[in-house]
Amino acid sequence: MPKNEKKINKRISSLLSVLLVLIIAVVAMHFGIIGTEETAYDSTTQTTQTTTTVSAEDGRIRATFVRIVDGDTLILNYNGQDNKVRLIGVNTPESVHRDKSKNTPEGKTASKYTNSIMENATDIYIAYDKAPQDRYGRELCFVYVTVDGKTEMLQEMLLKKGYANTMSIKPNITKAKHFEELRDEAKENGVGFWGDEERVKEIGW
Length: 205
Prior knowledge:
The structure is a single chain. This protein is α+β, with helices and mostly antiparallel strands. It has 2 domains: 49 residues; 150 residues, CATH 2.40.50.90. It is 42% helix and 22% strand. Strands 1-2-3-6-5 form a 5-stranded mixed β-barrel. Strands 4-8 form a two-stranded antiparallel ribbon. Helix 4 runs parallel beside helix 5. The longest helix has 28 residues.
């Protein structure tokens, strides 16, 4: 047999061996006999998102409390970073306004209440409405907290306590009617700040 033909046959034999190995590897991966780096990465990513970020209920996102800004604004950590969160649908009196003349004792009371709730919450979740941010870059959220084994929305707690008024801004008006009902009930019963009609007028409610 000529030398050139022997070399060609040897190369063909080598190529067939490599091809056979590749076929075996592909079959093994298809039936899950061996894994790949990509598969392992995807699995880890999915587990991380499921167990540390997103709740199974309503797509709520788990968060941790960082600090308070005022009664209706706070800093929460989620998705790996600190976020300035403005509560959707409610408004508390001012307490940290740049114009100090606008800050009120009621604002400090509302801030202390919100801070107390957040510090004692064992679980915190946020959820979005239609628009996730305002023009200032703040996250617009419903905030859910579990305190003493009971889960409530922070907005509802402030309204029931009479420490917040309603503030509806489109398109985030999904719960506007519900919030107004809670506000009206607190107002009719003179709960919280609603107990002092003159003061209510002074703070612009």
